[in-house]
Design brief:
The protein contains 13 helices and seven strands. It is α/β, with parallel strands linked by helices. The chain has one domain: Glycerol-3-phosphate (1)-acyltransferase. A seven-stranded mixed β-sheet has the order 1-7-6-2-5-3-4, sandwiched between helices. Helix 2 crosses helix 3, helix 8 crosses helix 10 and helix 10 packs antiparallel against helix 11. Keywords: Acyltransferase, Transferase. GO terms for molecular function: 1-acylglycerol-3-phosphate O-acyltransferase activity.
Length: 310
């Protein structure tokens, strides 16, 4: 009897593993790219997220962010935060714009913002990734206060302009997706358009070290509690009559300057900005392994930067 029970348990476990490997856990299309032009597009459904900004959801998110998320983040990585005094120059809602190379970027921004600002911050998230299943959509909405945005064009489920008008700050990653090698990709104009259209300032944020801590393809940070730098810059405001096309390069340049400052010192970075010689943050024109190797260089400690500045 005991032998038969053990054999039954093993057979059952094997069957469960086989079913799990073949089960569709998400709704992402399984059509080969070569056949996509011949497939009738599926009608998209919009996942509602307004409930995630109700008082009850805000209270739950406060516990999750200040408790579990913040504790896990600081246990796995060592956030080195600077420039928070720049946020004191805000007098209303703002767009928070950062470079994007890791899934750590969103929790890093949320867990380093002042509490009052964090509670009123929503995050634009890719609809085809975070909102492809109900459980992933629900989890990201309640924990990070996300709303879906189409990366390849289309409508937003919750207009970021409406959120800004209601007094919410909105986190946007203008690259549209995570960098494949840790270097900054070209910024799209969505953030600049929102800033110009709704007359709100843009807070640039430079995040350095998150790719080394949790690169694309990993589901958890690397061991060793690596240092990740998060640097906030002074708010940028569109000039009178300035178009989104003209404003977008200024946003990209501000984030690049913050990353340059993180690599050297504030004084050296400011001098390069004034002289128009800030180094490109798109990385060297080299093989991918070399780009990855350079982007994963250890973060220079803050104390070392202060000594260099003196």
């Amino acid at each position: 009897m005991g032998t038969n029970l053990v054999k039954f348990s093993r057979d059952t476990a094997r069957d469960v593993r086989v079913v799990a490997r073949g089960w569709r856990w998400g709704r992402r299309p399984q059509v080969p790219r070569s056949a996509e032009p011949y497939v009738i597009p599926r009608e998209k459904s919009v996942f509602p997220t307004k409930w995630a900004r109700t008082p009850a959801a805000i209270a739950v998110r406060e516990v999750l962010q200040k408790g579990a998320l913040n504790s896990v983040l600081r246990f796995e990585v060592n956030p080195q935060v600077s420039g928070l005094d720049s946020l004191l120059k805000l007098d209303g809602p703002a767009l928070i714009v950062a470079n994007h190379s890791s899934h750590l970027d969103t929790p890093l921004v949320l867990c380093t913002l002042p509490d009052a600002m964090r509670r009123k911050t929503a995050v634009a998230a890719a609809a085809d990734y975070f909102f492809d299943t109900w459980w992933r959509a629900t989890a990201s909405a309640i924990v990070f206060n996300t709303f879906p945005i189409e990366r390849r064009g289309g409508k937003l489920s919750s207009q970021p302009g409406d959120l800004l008008a209601d007094g919410w700050n909105v986190v946007v990653f203008p690259e549209g997706t995570r960098s494949p090698d840790g270097w900054m990709e070209r910024f799209r104009m969505g953030a600049a358009y929102l800033a110009v259209e709704h007359g709100v300032p843009v807070v640039p944020v430079g995040i350095k070290g998150s790719f080394a801590a949790m690169p694309r393809g990993r589901g958890w940070p690397v061991p060793g509690r690596p240092t990740v730098a998060v640097r906030y810059g002074d708010p940028l405001r569109p000039a009178e009559g300035e178009s989104a096309r003209d404003f977008a390069p200024r946003i990209s340049a501000a984030v690049s300057a913050l990353l340059d400052e993180e690599s050297t010192t504030w004084w050296e970075a400011r001098r390069r900005v004034a002289a128009g010689t800030s180094p490109s943050q798109s990385g060297p024109d080299a093989a991918r392994w070399r780009r990855v190797w350079e982007s994963t260089a250890p973060i220079k400690p803050a104390a070392t930067k202060r000594r260099a500045w003196k």
